[in-house]
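Listing S7. Sequence submitted for prediction.
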Amino acid sequence: MAGLTAAALAVIGFFAYQASAAQDRAERPSAAQTAKPSPGDEGDDAKSHAPSKKETALPSRSGEGLRVVYALERRRVWLVGKDGKATRTFEVAPSPVSPQPGTYEVTSRSSHVKGSDGVPVENVVRFASVDGVTIGFSAALDGSTPDPDTSRRTGGIREKREDGEALWLHAPIGTRVVVVS
C-alpha cells in the first residue's frame, strides 16, 4: 500500500510541476510573439510612462528598406522591414563609447559571450568600431540595462532580453545599421 501511495504522490508531483511550467510559459511570451509590431515599449513601466508618438516615430532620413536604426540622443532602436516600416521600437542603454552618425552594417554576431564590462550577454550584434572599441547591441543575461559607466571604454549597447532576441532575428550579418544623432 505504501508503494502505491508513493507512486500516486510522484504522479501528482509530476503533474503539478508540468502545470507550473505551463503557467511560466504562458506568462512569458516568446520572442516571436513580442516581435509583433508595437507602437512603443511594452515594458513594466509602459503604464506609468507610455512613450509619445514623437518619441517612437521613426527618424526621418534614416535610410530605406530593411535596416536597424539607432538614435543616439533618443536612446532608441527601430527594427525596419523591407517595406520601410518599423516593426518594433525599444529603448536601449547606450555604451560609454558611441559610433558617429552614419551607415554601418552588422559585421559579426555571438549568441552568448562575456561583455566588455564582464557581464554575461546574449544576442550580440556588432556593427562598428571606434578607436579600437567594438560597438554592438546586446542583452545582459541578468536583464540589466545600466547607465553607461564613463570610467570604462566599452561599446555594449544594452537592451532588454526580449528586444535583444528580436534584433538578433532581424539583423543577420550584412544588415544595415543606421545611426542618427
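Caption to Listing S7: primary sequence and predicted C-alpha cells for the chain studied. Helices lie at 2-27, 31-34, 53-56, 161-170. The chain has four helices and nine strands.
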